[in-house]
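Wed. Picked up where I left off yesterday with Dephospho-CoA kinase. The coffee machine is broken again, so keeping this brief.
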Amino acid sequence: MKPWILGLTGGIGSGKSAVAQHFIEHGVHLVDADQAARWVVEPGRPALQQIAEHFGSEVLLADGQLNRPALRARVFADGHERRWLEALLHPLIRQEITAYLARAESPYAILVSPLLVESGQHELTQRILVVDAPERLRIARTMQRDQTTAEQVQAILQAQASREERLRYADDVLVNDRDLDWLRGEVERLHNFYLSLSGGQP
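Structure written out below (tokens, as returned):
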């Protein structure tokens, strides 16, 4: 039986990493799209070579690793360059994710992605769980976690899909506005529900 795929997403500061961790504790196979995005640009992978050829050596560090801040500065300043990079990376990231999910041995597997909706990665899933929290709380959590300003967090919020858009795709919504014990209980409840589903559908 091939496991069905649950997409797990949520805006910055919603607590999706904590939720993902609780699912892992229940033995659920999980792949993180952010990690896949890092794997595809490791030294020795073709994507890194293409990026260096396109943007020049200033996007590489002395040890041959990708200089993320330099690349980010280039692509955020120029929509055309950003689209070039996305066209290169999105299919490769999708391949990594698909290969990793194919190795899952749990009854269902999870794809965690902050950009599940925006990147089209939701097409790889049979069901979507959105972790949500009031914006005020999300901003406070992120400022505390990243030692950053409210303005910087606001800028990231603007770049992500709107909360309404994410919720439109949701099959399940977990409002994470209480403590960790409560959250652990909610994940357990969802996990037991997911084990009863076939192909992600009741």
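Quick read: The beta strands are 4-9, 29-32, 108-112, 127-132, 172-175.
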